[in-house]
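User: structure tokens for this one?
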Amino acid sequence: VQLQASGGGLVQAGGSLRLSCAYSKRIFSNNAMGWFRQAPGKEREFVSTISWNAGRTYYTDSVKGRFTISRDNAKNSVYLQMNSLKPEDSAVYYCAAARGSTSSSSSRDYQYWGRGTQVTVSS
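Assistant:
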């Protein structure tokens, strides 16, 4: 398994969750990483991305100020801290490794995808 996401669950609105994604160091330590999500009946959408050295981060507008992406290459992991969760944040969240070191919001720029982890926010 090259990418493994975890940390999803059921939380009340206003609560927090921290998603983690472990990745293969040999393959992904120099790659940008991203988080995407897909709600039932909707297309997969970009959430956040981080460059290979964590120097640049980007977020979709709907999560700015609430979500924080980070990575620890020494631990071969990328994280998504989600605060002030809303019911509309409910989705399956996926971590992905980009084709290169530059972060991107386009799913087409991501080559490897992990299994998703379900996040459910109750109102």
